Amino acid sequence: xxxxxxxxxxxxxxxxxxxxxxxxxxxxxxxxxxxxxxTDGLSALERLDHITPDLILLDAxxxxxDGFETCRRIKQVxxxxxxxxxxxxxxxxxxxxxxxxxVGGIDYVTKPIxxxxxxxxxxxxxxxxxxxxxxxxxxxxAAHAVIVLGGNGxxxxxxxxxxxxxxKYYGPTAPASHKLPAALQVWLNExxxxxxxxxxxxxxxxxxxxQPQGELHITLSGPGQGHGVSLVLEEKPTGAAARPEDGxxxxxxxxxxxxxxxxxxxxxxxxxxxxxxxxxxxxxMSPRTVNKHLEHIFVKLGVETRSAAAVLASxxxxxxxxxxxxxxxxxQ
Length: 332
What we know:
Shape: globular
Oligomer: single chain
Order of helices and strands: EHEHEHEHEHEEHHEEEHHHHH
Radius of gyration: 25 Å
Number of helices: 12
Number of strands: 10
Strand order of the largest sheet: 2-1-3-4-5
CATH class of the largest domain: Alpha Beta
CATH architecture of the largest domain: 3-Layer(aba) Sandwich
CATH superfamily of the largest domain: Response regulator
Structural class: alpha/beta
Low-confidence stretches: 1-6, 240-253, 315-332
């Protein structure tokens, strides 16, 4: 599998016309891209079994399966479905343009091809696609602190929680600084070198920074879809401050967690062993809404699992904190 996390962008050109391939390859090569080619739809699909490009430049009309069908099949493959597809077509009729968007294309260029325009469009779409993928990756780690890295291995942006924890465990930094603490940057650089040498990031052990008040676990996440790499931070209390799921004593109340009345209701019934569907029926909401409340509850309580939240919920049922919702009071 080709990895391009900190390399040049990879563009797969799919076209059966040698002149077009040569012209586009030269233009993209000169602009700093890595160019791969396929001369028909089936060859393109076979190439995608082994590589994940940053963008696919796809001719609409080809022998065999045409570009529209090729795009449709690409979007059915989960591993490469996120890759932006730009059509090349001499068919500017509305029905063909619409069809290209319907099968998953994000843009089209008309023939005869103007190389400079194609290069500019490709650059814009790759930047947008990578930002979207990194944003999705950050959302997947919403319960943690996240630092999103740029192509040079330096931080592009970080969540407020990540900033707080870096200062807590490494000391204060200049307000305008976008640099990682020196010790963390050294560790990160070492891992990126190992990754470029072919080692999977799954084999990288988290960096653990210990302070009297707890431990900060830092994990390198990626490359995944779109090759985005992030640092995921998680604080784990030690000793007497161990997390509820580690068996330590629970706080006497949950007032400091600032649960909304509805979240308190959901947590209360979770502690009684109710499923999401049960809670939905009791509180008159959809299971999806219950799940959304639980996501917020996990973040506010600082837990990651349903069972850990249920342990905290048992303290609610025991009378430490009462729900403010009349619906749950009436059903107890």
